[in-house]
Automatic annotation (TrEMBL):
This is Inner membrane protein YgaP-like transmembrane domain-containing protein. Gene3D superfamilies: 6.10.140.1340. The chain crosses the membrane at residues 7-25. It comes from the Bacteria. It comes from Rhodoblastus acidophilus (Rhodopseudomonas acidophila). Keywords: Membrane, Transmembrane, Transmembrane helix. Residues 2-55 form the Inner membrane protein YgaP-like transmembrane domain. InterPro entries: YgaP-like_TM. The keyword Transmembrane helix applies. Pfam families: YgaP-like_TM.
């Protein structure tokens, strides 16, 4: 798995988890979804992505 694929998989998983939390727990978990979206936009403009840093530490290339 490449680094880009791992970041995309993590982002998709987090969005699905937040959707489940909104449905089953509380609508306030939409803030988690907003945070994920803002982080994706920020990383597109700056090139800095915290999960990418972690995946590199775990050895993904």
């Amino acid at each position: 798995m490449t680094l880009n694929n791992a970041v995309r998989a993590l982002a998709g998983t987090m969005v699905l988890i937040s959707a489940a939390l909104v449905y089953f727990v509380s609508p306030w978990f939409l803030l988690f979804t907003v945070f994920i979206g803002l982080n994706l936009i920020q990383s597109a403009f700056t090139g800095f992505c915290p999960p990418e840093f972690l995946f590199r530490k775990f050895g993904l290339k």
